[in-house]
């Protein structure tokens, strides 16, 4: 941990990153390349329902000045200029969007050993002023975050937070929405070597009297591959696997399932299930490769390889049949027979007791 309490946005950040970062519910594809001169160019495409959005962004660094420019499909040009350390502990950010003439904004961030301050003001006649401040040290910090509308003279945002850090544990408590909601979270680093961590977040709304509990975990299978999972009290379960297949190039697959919808035997649609990558377009060889890699790193190849298949119940049907097949390695041939989800004994292939992914797919098609 660095010296000083940091900024208000750092309160509870570790838990938020563990529970929400890198999860994708939309069909999103991003490609980022780096030139020899240090220029980063990114292209992003997102499909939301029937709408496809895209943007191209570039980042240029020159000494302590970083310039980010992004152009989207709505003909908007977003520009952000960051000046790092014009004075010790100070950072200046200037941002604007063309053609919106009222989007200009200036931010100042200052970090000290015992304080962290962030302030921003819009470049308009009646701007909204944002201010956040934190006092304390790298162990205990207390802060507030507020926004003031100069046009109406009202506070549009008022939050407060408390953070406690000790060794491998970070706990945070925040009061949000002008005191209408309270959130408690914690982050615990179990193993620094494998980057294994667990975390949880509990939110309560006083106006609606509703509670939301989310717990999650992460684990690095190796220095290139990591997995994450989370679940909340509403039955939504999410998981992702991320692989760095080359330096600064990440391949991430994430998905979310509403377990309550599964119990009701409803159709798989956008109201109940969402995937970062379209599952029905995965080739069979890719599913087998993915699970073999995952089980290999988890040292489960000596036991069994689990293959989960989502197959259409009928052609052009949106309902799916889920099949689970266990593929045993050759060392276990003769000791046990592969079975599927309903425990029905398979018909062994001549000279081969291993149930392959293709065999599993054909058998599930027959059951469908």
TrEMBL record:
Keyword list, A-Z: Ion transport, Membrane, Porin, Transmembrane, Transmembrane beta strand, Transport
MF terms in GO: porin activity; voltage-gated monoatomic anion channel activity
InterPro entries: Porin_Euk, Porin_Euk/Tom40
Main location group: membrane
One Pfam family this sequence matches: Porin_3
Signal peptide, first to last residue: none
GO CC terms of this entry: mitochondrial outer membrane; pore complex
Cellular localisation: Membrane
Keyword Transferase: no
Family, per entry: Belongs to the eukaryotic mitochondrial porin (TC 1.B.8.1) family.
Protein name: Mitochondrial outer membrane protein porin of 36 kDa-like
Organism: Cucurbita argyrosperma subsp. sororia
């Amino acid at each position: 941990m660095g010296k000083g309490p940091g900024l208000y946005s750092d309160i509870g950040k570790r838990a938020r990153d563990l529970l929400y970062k890198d999860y994708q519910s939309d069909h999103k594809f991003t490609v980022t390349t780096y030139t020899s001169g240090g220029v980063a160019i990114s292209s992003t495409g997102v499909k939301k329902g029937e709408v496809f959005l895209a943007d191209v962004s570039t980042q240029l660094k020159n000494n302590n000045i970083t310039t980010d420019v992004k152009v989207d499909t709505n003909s908007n040009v977003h520009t952000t200029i960051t000046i790092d350390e014009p004075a010790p502990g100070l950072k200046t950010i200037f941002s604007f969007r063309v053609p919106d003439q009222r989007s200009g904004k200036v931010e100042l961030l200052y970090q000290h050993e015992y304080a962290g301050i962030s302030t921003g003001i819009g470049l308009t006649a009646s701007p909204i002023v944002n201010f956040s401040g934190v006092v304390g040290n790298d162990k205990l910090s207390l802060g507030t975050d507020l926004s003031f509308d100069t046009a109406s003279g009202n506070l549009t945002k008022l939050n407060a937070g408390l953070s406690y850090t000790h060794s491998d544990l970070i706990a945070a408590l925040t009061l949000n929405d002008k005191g209408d909601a309270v959130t408690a979270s914690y982050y615990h680093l179990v193993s620094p070597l494998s980057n294994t961590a667990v975390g949880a977040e509990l939110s309560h709304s006083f106006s609606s009297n509703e509670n939301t509990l989310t717990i999650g975990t992460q684990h690095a299978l190796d220095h290139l591959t990591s997995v994450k999972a989370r679940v909340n009290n509403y039955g939504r379960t999410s998981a992702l696997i991320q692989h760095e297949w080359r330096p600064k190039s990440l391949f991430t697959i994430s998905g979310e399932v509403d377990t309550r919808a599964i119990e009701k035997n409803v159709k798989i649609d956008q109201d109940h299930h969402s995937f970062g990558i379209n599952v029905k377009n995965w080739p069979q060889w890719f599913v087998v490769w993915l699970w073999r890699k995952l089980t290999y790193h988890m040292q489960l190849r000596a036991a069994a390889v689990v293959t989960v298949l989502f197959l259409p119940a009928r052609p052009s049907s949106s309902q799916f049949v889920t099949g689970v097949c266990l593929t045993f390695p050759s060392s276990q041939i003769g000791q046990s027979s592969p079975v599927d989800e309903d425990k029905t004994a398979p018909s062994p292939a001549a000279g081969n007791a291993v149930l392959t992914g293709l065999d599993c797919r054909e058998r599930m098609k027959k059951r469908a």
